[in-house]
Amino acid sequence: MKALVWNGEKIELTERPFPVIQHPRDAIVKVTLSSVCTSDLHIIRGFVPKAKEGIVLGHEFVGEIVALGSDIKNLQIGDRVSANCETFCGECYFCKHGFINNCENGGWMLGCTIDGCQAEYVRVPYADRGLTLIPDNVSYKQALFVGDILSSGYFGAELCEIKEGNTVAVIGAGPVGLCSMACAKTFGAGKIIAIDIDEKRLECALKFKLADYVFNPENCNLEEEIKKCTERRGADCVIEAAGGNNTFELAWKIARPNAIIAIVAMYEKNQTLPLPQMYGKNLIFKTGGVDAIHCEKLLEMISRGSLNTDFLISKEYPLSEILQAYKDFDAKKDNCLKFAITY
Fold first, then answer.
1. Residue 27 near residue 68, CB atoms below 8 Å
2. Which of 43, 89, 136, 246 has the fewest other C-beta atoms within 10 Å?
3. Same domain flag for 128 and 48
4. Residues 74 and 127 reside in one and the same domain
5. What number of helices (H) and strands (E) belong to the chain?
6. How far apart are the first and last CA of the chain?
7. Can you list the alpha helix ranges (DSSP code H) found in the chain?
8. pTM for the full model?
9. Mean pLDDT of 150-172
């Protein structure tokens, strides 16, 4: 089968053997759509030390089950499923407490430590936990981002403990940030502020009614603008979804005293926590990676129309053109948000 393989230095589309059941809780999924993620770029650039050379990349996908291990009772061959970006057993201490990112038997495996989804077929360990049935009225495209980008956005909003009417500032209007905005609304946020240096992405936040205010910190005094929107207090909640060189600093500066700051971005450099400057603000910091435990709930919300991620797909590429998709995604060609890979 065709598969996109990272050899430790570059990626190449090549032939790989079809995956097979290795454990009674495995499933084999025929991939119908996958997506290129910024995390894939982090692997290629060497920022994910645990990533193994020779793996098939990719962790964000939907598809149809074609084979099941003998212990799988909640799924059937032929089911349409959305995959969780995390592999988790559901039985260890961390899983039982909802911290599936820290599963003692899993974590981020697909496309990192084991073969991922940017191939015609993929083996999914602990499939009874990591695959979620797609409702009949939800398309593959609508379900594509549930297990990663949408879950990350929901995770950011959830970490903030949003109260009805709160003002939520989201740094980064990329895919995770936009999903954070959409999810913050479902938690009852009163006002949402989108912050980015990309004007096109800010326009997107307004166009799809995900934000009430948008600011480019390169064109304004951001701290002052935030104060104007918040009766001089600062944001009640801040979701940092950008991961830039100065966005961590922006996050704590625009937060009001006693605010919660959710860090769902992945940084490529260490960040500084300047405690003397923060003293007296009494801030609470919460950090990811994502505990994507709400996939079924998110699919139900899509099914009933309370969440929508259709706007995320900027372009579709066939698997045969995935190398070009990576180049265009890395270059943010045509102001892209996400690309879907078709099979």
1. yes
2. 136
3. yes
4. yes
5. 12, 16
6. 11
7. 38-44, 93-96, 127-130, 140-143, 151-159, 175-186, 199-207, 222-229, 247-254, 275-278, 295-303, 322-330
8. 0.95
9. 98
